């Protein structure tokens, strides 16, 4: 029995929303997004300084040239149909960022806006580190 795609999407969405943090890896290219994630994780430095980019590594390109991917037309159609659901869910998670002043959605490069006293970005709503945020508490009544 095949489970309808809409039901599969709802299950995946429910599972994703249980997480305290979902990192959109493509946004790790955005310095302001990285800064916001680092603040959320308690000042954990270095996310922006990573050297590895798996999608650009020499080994990946070499393997793709050595054994190129060959996909049958029926398989391609089925993958395209299935990916539409995945892409929709991805965009929902990515686009939960508030709209920026330039009218673009939050899924992309944040634009910093300078004011007299502060600089704000599309990611300022990220919560800062709170050591008690995820602490389990056993309250006795």
| Structural class assignment | mainly alpha
pLDDT under 50 segments (min length 5)? Answer: 102-117
Helix coverage percent: 25-40%
Instruction: Give the tally of β-strands.
Output: 2
The N- to C-terminal Cα distance equals: 48 Å
Task: Report the sheet with the most strands, covering strand number, pairing sense and barrel closure.
Answer: 2 strands, antiparallel
- The radius of gyration is 20 Å
Approximately how much beta-strand content do the residues carry? Answer: under 5%
Adjacency order of strands in the biggest sheet: 1-2
Mean pLDDT: 77
Structural features, described:
By secondary structure, this protein is mainly α. The protein is built from four helices and two strands. Strands 1-2 form a two-stranded antiparallel sheet. Strand 1 and strand 2 (119-120) form a beta hairpin. Helix 1 (5-16) packs parallel to helix 4.
Features:
2 strands; 3% strand; two-stranded antiparallel sheet; mainly alpha; 4 helices; extended; 141 residues
Question: SSE layout and pairings?
Answer:
Elements: H1 5-16, H2 31-40, H3 58-66, H4 73-94, E1 113-114, E2 119-120
Helix pairs in contact: 1-4
Short structural description:
This protein has helices at 5-16, 31-40, 58-66, 73-94; strands at 113-114, 119-120.
């Amino acid at each position: 029995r095949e489970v309808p795609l809409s039901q599969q999407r709802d299950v995946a969405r429910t599972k994703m929303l249980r997480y305290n943090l979902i990192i959109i890896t493509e946004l790790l290219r955005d310095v302001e997004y990285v800064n916001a994630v680092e603040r959320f994780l308690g000042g954990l430095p270095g996310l922006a300084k990573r050297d590895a980019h798996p999608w650009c590594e020499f080994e990946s390109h070499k393997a793709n040239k050595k054994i190129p991917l060959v996909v049958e037309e029926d398989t391609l159609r089925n993958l395209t149909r299935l990916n539409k659901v995945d892409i929709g869910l991805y965009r929902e998670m990515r686009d939960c960022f508030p709209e920026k002043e330039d009218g673009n959605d939050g899924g992309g490069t944040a634009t910093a806006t300078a004011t007299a006293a502060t600089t704000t970005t599309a990611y300022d709503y990220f919560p800062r580190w709170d050591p008690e945020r995820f602490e389990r508490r056993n309250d006795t009544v």
